[in-house]
């Protein structure tokens, strides 16, 4: 099967605790290849745009504040069934419900500060990759 791509963010709680390498290793050990990566400080506007599907949710404002509270590492990951594989290694949104051995079970601090983002569909992966990366920044 051909490789597909997904979009990942290592969130501010993880960069603050110097876990960029540890999280990336878990992604790589799950069979995903980092084909683009950059460390950025998200602007409020970028965060609100990125999470616009959640704008009516009660956690939206706090989430945007959290996502702009420190550096994040945005990545494009490539592999077989990349979206699904990444969701599996990430674990459930709420770390208390995440399976053992997942990134969120291992590292997340709370349902909000849950260390990683990963696209939930191939369609959203494409939109999210295009939101943060120019085509020439992705080297497969
Ligand atoms: N989130 C939150 N409170 C909630 C649900 C979600 O702060 O009750 C945050 C959390 O950081 C999560 C993000 O909003 O990762 C996006 O939520 P989504 O339901 O899309 O979860 P995900 O796809 O990240 O597992």
Mean pLDDT: 98
**pLDDT < 50 stretches:** none
The major pleated sheet works out as: 4 strands, antiparallel
Cα-atom radius of gyration: 14 Å
Shape: globular
* Total number of beta strands: 4
- Percent strand equals 15-25%
| Structural class computed from helices and strand pairing | alpha+beta
- Report how far the terminal alpha carbons are from each other: 16 Å
Bound molecules: uridine-5'-diphosphate
The helicity comes to 25-40%
Number of helices: 7
Strand order, sheet with most strands = 2-3-1-4
Could you spell the SSE succession in H and E letters? EHHEHHEHHEH
Function: Major role in the synthesis of nucleoside triphosphates other than ATP. The ATP gamma phosphate is transferred to the NDP beta phosphate via a ping-pong mechanism, using a phosphorylated active-site intermediate.
Active site: 117 (pros-phosphohistidine intermediate)
GO molecular function: kinase activity
EC number: 2.7.4.6
SSE blueprint:
Blueprint: E1 4-10, H1 12-16, H2 20-29, E2 33-40, H3 44-50, H4 60-67, E3 72-79, H5 82-90, H6 103-107, E4 116-118, H7 122-132
Antiparallel strand pairs: 1-3, 1-4, 2-3
Bound molecules: uridine-5'-diphosphate.
The site of uridine-5'-diphosphate (UDP) has 8 residues, from loops.
Function: Major role in the synthesis of nucleoside triphosphates other than ATP. The ATP gamma phosphate is transferred to the NDP beta phosphate via a ping-pong mechanism, using a phosphorylated active-site intermediate.
Main location: cytoplasm
Catalytic activity: a 2'-deoxyribonucleoside 5'-diphosphate + ATP = a 2'-deoxyribonucleoside 5'-triphosphate + ADP; a ribonucleoside 5'-diphosphate + ATP = a ribonucleoside 5'-triphosphate + ADP
């Amino acid at each position: 099967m051909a490789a597909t791509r997904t979009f990942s963010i290592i969130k501010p709680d993880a960069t603050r605790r110097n876990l960029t390498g540890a999280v990336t290793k878990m992604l790589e050990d799950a069979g995903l290849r980092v084909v683009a990566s950059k460390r950025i400080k998200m602007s409020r506007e970028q965060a609100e745009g990125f999470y616009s599907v959640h704008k009516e949710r009660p956690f939206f404002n706090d989430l945007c504040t959290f996502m702009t509270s420190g550096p994040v590492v945005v990545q494009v990951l490539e592999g077989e069934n990349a979206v699904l594989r990444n969701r599996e290694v990430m674990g459930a949104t709420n770390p208390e419900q995440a399976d053992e051995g997942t990134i969120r079970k291992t590292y997340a601090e709370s349902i909000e500060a849950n260390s990683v983002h990963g696209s939930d569909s191939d369609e959203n992966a494409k939109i999210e990759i295009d939101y943060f990366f120019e085509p020439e920044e992705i080297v497969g």
